[in-house]
Amino acid sequence: MKRILSCMQPTSHLHLGNYLGALKNFVALQDEGAECLYGVVDLHAITVPYQRDGLANATREIAAAYIAAGIDPKKSILFAQSAIPAHSQLMWLLATMSQMGKLERMTQFKDKAGKNKERAGLGLFAYPVLMAADILIYKATHVPVGEDQKQHLELARELASTFNTRYETDFFPQPEPYISGPATRVMSLRDGTQKMSKSAESDLSRINFTDDADTIAKKIKKAKSDPDVLPETLDGLEDRAEAKNLVNLYAALAGITNEDVLKEFAGKGFGDFKPALVDVAVAHLAPITARMNELMADPAEIDAILQAGNEKARAMAGDVLSEVSEIMGFWKGS
Ligand code: AMP
Ligand code: TRP
Q1: 113, 168, 226, 312: which sits with the fewest CB atoms below 10 Å from its CB?
Q2: 10 lies in the same domain as 159
Q3: pLDDT band at 61 (very low <50, low <70, confident <90, very high)
Q4: Are residues 76 and 167 in the same domain?
Q5: Which CATH number characterizes residue 211's domain?
Q6: Is residue 233 part of a domain?
Q7: Cα(41)–Cα(152) distance, rounded to whole angstroms?
Q8: Mean of the pLDDT values across residues 140-154?
Q9: Atom nearest to 183 CA in ligand 1
Q10: pLDDT at 244 over 90
């Protein structure tokens, strides 16, 4: 049976990359009828400096974004990672099977640790092991994420195999990355060679879930592009990183392919294309933003949804952890 799991960190606001690369697929998989679990990974969020006073609300905000985007808490289980101790417990067990050399090669660690690796925290280093635990603790089979998480997913797959080999079992399934759609790697609006990210210093580089229609319009109009017209075929977008990104965005927002976008806009310049992109972005995002604001005005409702999800997740994760303990030979009394 398919079991879908994915998570997002409650670190600042979600942006269009999070939505098109990941969240939109969370909703599609739910609507296909798969069993889905979606987490807010607050233990991951504290691996970088964070605001203690804002953490609980940031956690609610991700849950609100999930629901506003179309996750139905009656169909999918929504949970907060720190409320399910089995994630951290399984992480420790997996840590004993994780090689430091592999963790050192993780590009996200290298990016976040920067030049001063010696001073990076153990939490940042071990982050991918916790992510593997998030996935394996539910024996998830499919993990919808953006392109940038592929390397972490590969590690989770390796840990599942290492466990199975070491303990001569087929207990953990191999979790498959689900990386799908025209916008699996959304680039910065200011620089088509950098991915859109929460941490880039310029707010003009990204469209946030909290941006209103005027802000979205301003950011798209200021987005870096080029003086050429749009080509007839996709080959014509090679070496035009910014143009390609804007076409991908249009396709993903309108729910059509890149080829269809070019059919409509070939021969037109960005003076024509950008206003059309603003329209499709605003039409798509405005209802989500409005719903998110409504939900954030009633934190008690979000809390109740998370609490109900936590209970279900805790029961599932607890069962898997008991089986893992048994397989690994831990004492359990008589
Ligand atoms: P994060 O913001 O790191 O918690 O990411 C949450 C999800 O959004 C993950 O599945 C990422 O792969 C995805 N994601 C983040 N940035 C982008 C981007 N620029 N393009 C596509 N997907 C992204
Ligand atoms: N590492 C992911 C990110 O930065 C977030 C994450 C944590 C995750 N645990 C996960 C994603 C488990 C999928 C499955 O985006």
Answers
A1: 168
A2: yes
A3: very high
A4: yes
A5: 1.10.240.10
A6: yes
A7: 15
A8: 97
A9: 21
A10: yes
- Statement to judge: residues 151 and 12 lie in one domain: yes
Distance CA 128, CA 149 (A): 10
Please, what is the angle between helix 270-296 and helix 241-254, to 10°?
50
Q: What residues have CB less than 8 Å from 226, skipping those under 6 apart?
A: 240, 242, 243, 270
Same domain, 217 and 157: no
* Index of the ligand 2 atom closest to the CA of residue 5: 14
Question: What DSSP assignment string belongs to 13-36?
Answer: --BHHHIIIIIHHHHHHHHTT-EE
CA dihedral 73, 74, 79, 84 (to 10 degrees): 170
Both 177 and 307 in a single domain?
yes
- Burial environment of residue 203 by CB neighbours within 10 A (0 to 12, 13 to 18, 19 or more): middle
68-125 pLDDT tens trace:
999 999 999 999 999 999 999 999 999 999 999 999 999 999 999 988 888 999 999 9
Is 172 contained in some domain? yes
Q: What is the Cα–Cα distance from 244 to 283, expressed in whole angstroms? A: 21
Which residues does ligand 2 sit against, CB inside 6 Å? Answer: 5-9, 41, 44, 131, 134-135, 143, 145, 149, 152
* Statement: the pTM of the whole predicted model exceeds 0.85: yes
